[in-house]
Amino acid sequence: MTADAEALDAGDPLARFREEFVFEDGGPLYVDGNSLGRLPKRTQERLAALVDEWGTALVRGWQEWIDLPVSVGDELAESALGARPGEVVVTDSVTVNLYKLARAALASRPGKTAVVTDAANFPTDRYVLEGLGCELRLIGADPVEGPGVADVEEACAPGDVALVSLSQVGYRSGALADLPAVTEAAHAAGALMLWDLSHSAGAVQVGLDEHGVDLAVGCTYKYLNAGPGAPAFLYVRSALQGQLRTPIQGWFGQRDQFDMDRAYEPADGVVRFLAGSPQILGLVAVRAGVELVREAGIGAIAAKGRALTAYAVELHDEVLAPLGVELGTPRDPARRGAHVSLRHPEGWRVCRALIERAGVVPDFRRPDTVRFGFPPLYTRFADVREAVERLRGVLERREHLEVDAAYTRVT
Amino acid sequence: MTADAEALDAGDPLARFREEFVFEDGGPLYVDGNSLGRLPKRTQERLAALVDEWGTALVRGWQEWIDLPVSVGDELAESALGARPGEVVVTDSVTVNLYKLARAALASRPGKTAVVTDAANFPTDRYVLEGLGCELRLIGADPVEGPGVADVEEACAPGDVALVSLSQVGYRSGALADLPAVTEAAHAAGALMLWDLSHSAGAVQVGLDEHGVDLAVGCTYKYLNAGPGAPAFLYVRSALQGQLRTPIQGWFGQRDQFDMDRAYEPADGVVRFLAGSPQILGLVAVRAGVELVREAGIGAIAAKGRALTAYAVELHDEVLAPLGVELGTPRDPARRGAHVSLRHPEGWRVCRALIERAGVVPDFRRPDTVRFGFPPLYTRFADVREAVERLRGVLERREHLEVDAAYTRVT
Asked: What is the model's pTM?
């Protein structure tokens, strides 16, 4: 007998945070916050205020706006990443940030010519690394459990690896890597370690400083709820900042930005990894999203994430496994992010049927994975149960066989 | 005797566009739209609607949002740049876009090892080019008239130039380059030509296709009025797109973005120069700004810009020159963008006095330049006269000698 969702919700110390978000009356059961997080009410207000400020302060607004990449980075560092002020900036996209850091890392290790990643890492990560012009060595990690220490040790064994770049939480499986041990393995092999935190920032504890991570990037539109295309972040360990140079030399990373007649000289600190003008609307949204994480506490958020996914796993075993669904996420709660992957041979059609027939919005990742994301700030245990129940209904009624089988793009 | 501002305003075919923008009651006389453009009323509405859409459509919004970099790029291409659909995308910052295109250009010209720019080009342009790891050859162009054909011919004479990169309108002088002739000179030397259109897009006619320009970048927060840190754009001539590859290989530039298990293969067309997730709020603001340019017509905008700056030059000669101000902008109307530069030995303090004592917001560029920007969509001839009159008052009363002389950063 599974636990009682209402009892779990009644005991949830984060329950009140649901009211911080916009919910549409009659809206669908949304379990895709791991793709695009919900709109916080305060963000709606802050964005309107920022647009007003643009209209009236005009260029004078920049006196405050100009510091946002650093100040919001500091807030993010402390609230969600386990990093110190001066180690994180909010800027550009994950893709661009990964490019900047990976190239800088490679250039700082002249004797080393290889970069290691997981063959199942998120596409943009692989593409960026592929484009660096060095050897890209792919780990063929377990598709459910993700890359582990042994994988990294093996890939680094030749001694030629400059950089190991992995996702802390796998986008498909939801597997949470053993960040401390993998980082240590990379270091033991003389490589720098870069983590993509897109599926972990705001969902799990990261501990960048504690675990000696060198570099990290991540997005803000998933568990940080900063909206579609909000700016990403990057982290560079303090002690490393002076040794690395961005390949994209821009005026926001210049030592004296408004002394405009000098040659390029990188600023001190992580600010040297800024490039062009920061997107102010997006930064204001990131700040609001980070505030919510700080108020709830990343420890409490991570604990609730483990509880929500544990409940989903329990329901999977009881309700979904008999209907042909296979769990694509690790069973150890310490090895999970805040989403679970449910594999089914007709996964694409199952996903479409959930959307078209059952009022559930999950997403799909080829070849067979339906993802249910449970952002701890606004997901109830009752939502987990309801999503599973509706999936059971689709499968029992075989509604997935009634929808169009043609695959079309989904984000 | 100078012309009558009221008569000029009465005959202005674009006068009605002023009502499209937010003006604060009692706000300052703003002549810095060349740094940050004003807020269009429709943008305020569109951004609020987009935030609502995020809150309710959630991830489903991406079905439409995903095409914005291309569709807004097409609209910008036709309305303001003289380019065709499929040649422009709105994405990233000027800095990042310039990096992508310059590196791609350099890689496409293996025998050529030098890049040419103007020593007085905007700092981020110089910094980016400096970071490419090739020889950066600097033109020491005339500080008022800017780089010309002879400068480019001389710099390219050794035959080793892969890329010439210049700003169409100089950020300090406001000089408008002879784009057709300079482009031709670069081509004659076997180089590709890249124009930074940050101070020209939405202010002057560009004619990218007509003049065979290869590459261009530019921002949208000046004369396109898209707001602080709105995404930039990039242009790649159709015939060249297949030959160039972005150094930043991201999933938005991948041939089949959601077929996630493939190696990187660039998409056809200019879309290959996208990298990470597009910033949707910024794109919606760019679309609104571009609409206004289309409705007014870039020809009419450019004509009014010439008339406004001609009026400012006339007033300068009559009113300001006797007070020690020197014109830092070309006198030929065909060689000007939409701002004028007023040089004064105490330029910084003059700028501060205008802001603190006279209710005028211009900006300052070292060492001695006060910039007055006159965005044609919302600037009246009466504003030009009023700005000059207030500057006269400051100088006559020597109020600039009463403000703090210490230079602090301005954007």
From this structure: 0.97
